[in-house]
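Table S7 (text form). Paired inputs.
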Amino acid sequence: MHNRRHFLASSAALTSPALLPGLAWAEKPWPEARTIRVVIPYVAGGVSDSVGRRLLEQVSHSLGQSIIVDNKGGAGGTLGMGEVARAKADGYTLALSAISPLTLQPHLMKLPYQFKDLVGVAPMMYSPVYLMATTAFQGKTFEDMVAAAKAKPGSIRWATSGIGSVGHIMLEQVQAKTGAQFIHVPYKGIAQTVTDAASAQFEVMTGNPFGTINSLIDQGKLRLLATTGPKRAPNQSAIATLAEKGIPEANLTSMFGFLAPAGTPADVIARLNKVILAEIATPTIQDAMHASDNVSITQSAAEFDALMQQESRNNASIVKKANISI
């Protein structure tokens, strides 16, 4: 485990935008002694922050480079992703994001960037999606939620992290499969969603697990109705997945990783991939992921690109089949 004296003088050092102090420059630094900017295209406080910032501390140390973390939330991650797509392809601007702004949203809306404008650098993890009820919902189970939304269409408000987000697609799929009708409440990110959930401003929500959500579950302010993933979440093994509930179309997970503007030098991407994957494998990062039911992914940049291409094709099919439009 790295000596944390090299990382942060205080927790404020990682507030948005945050500067991670670099160490003494190597004799031949990559590529030169300039700061790397990593855009997280969401408001501060979500799963990409809780794991990503800790990972970037270690990447900064390993590279001997200063790294600025810049939260640019809005439009389901597409605003920040567009900023990275337009950046100079020189290795100094990266995105740390769910891949959905690249593999899902382009099939739902017109965006100022295309899939070809970004390339994969390294995956980080996949995260299950929790479907949770607040104390505003009197029912106990997923089946109770569906029954209530069918008996009185529009009586159940379902909050997501934005239009075109994975949570939004899940909502559409649940409606299509069950005939229930929900009111979609899109937020700009998870932080405000969680704040409003704690005060029961809506009935149900979707979100990736991280510290604040897990704490609210422990306090009884959020109650799990279902999860997603190829198997049940390790820390929530009593809760069935949506596939087990008979709605495999909605059994979607969020994948997070690092991306760069297309044209970023291959040697830069290769070194970043090597360093990022090495730091993900450390006990510190593995423990942080496991604590919140996230699962690390190890792939080369080329494999990550191929995975995103397949995910984009899958999402195009989902959107077309479900006739989802925004």
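Next pair, protein 2 of 2.
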Amino acid sequence: MKKYIYILFASLGLLASCEEEVVRYDDQTGPAYLRFSSPNIDLPVVFDSTAEIDIPVLVSTLSDVDRTVAVNVVTTGAENEATPDQYSVGNTVTIPANSYRGILPFTGIDNGIDIGETKTVTLEINEISGDAGADLDSFSTTTVSLFQVCPVDPDFFIGEYQLTTTVPGIFGIDTFEGGIVTLQQGESSSDARKFSAFVYPAFGTYGPFTFNFTLVCGTVLVASGQDTGIGCGANTRLGPSATTGGYEAGDDSVLVIDFLDDEGGGSCGAETPASITLTKI
């Protein structure tokens, strides 16, 4: 059965008005109008993983046979353009018989997407079943924006861990006393963590001191200005170093934390990069 689309324009006069039918569109024999369902698509990708999305491709006509729409990736030269190893997409879409819609599967891949970075892929419709006369409007291209997300489960890096010093701090001594510590949820956010431990065991028993850090996409961000309560006149403070330590995606068995001991050198004279490893018990 044919369906018709009527476009009506109003012709206005001084004393009266009338409606005039100017276009009658036939969705079986009329020209094919092709487009994506949206010109912009956001696709969050969990770090070190992939994300899949179905992109609808729409056509204005019906057919009693399957039709094929050709799609290609457009190279824009943009600085944030994704590389081919950061996505996977086919170059054709099948629109089934008696349908106005086909689906283009698209996969985003976290392969070198940095925290806070967005990578884009621009897709373009070329033709439908070889019909060079198909009309392609402003929606015949779409841009997929890939960005990294890092959800942290409530029980991720929670519980008892063995603390081991891998790089000592000031004066070549351990900043934290080795042994078992308990990782807990921090106050600042859902991905914040903390533990309490005695500090500078070579000098005696001081503390316990609560150390705060945040899990962010495989890295560990240490809060700045954490007062240890002990020092050379003024108290030393612990803070972020040039390196961030880290962990494996989905694996909370081992956590490496890099930090600065005596941040800014305000107590014992020189800030010192240090590192600890937490191993789940």
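Residues 1-23 have pLDDT under 50 and may be disordered.
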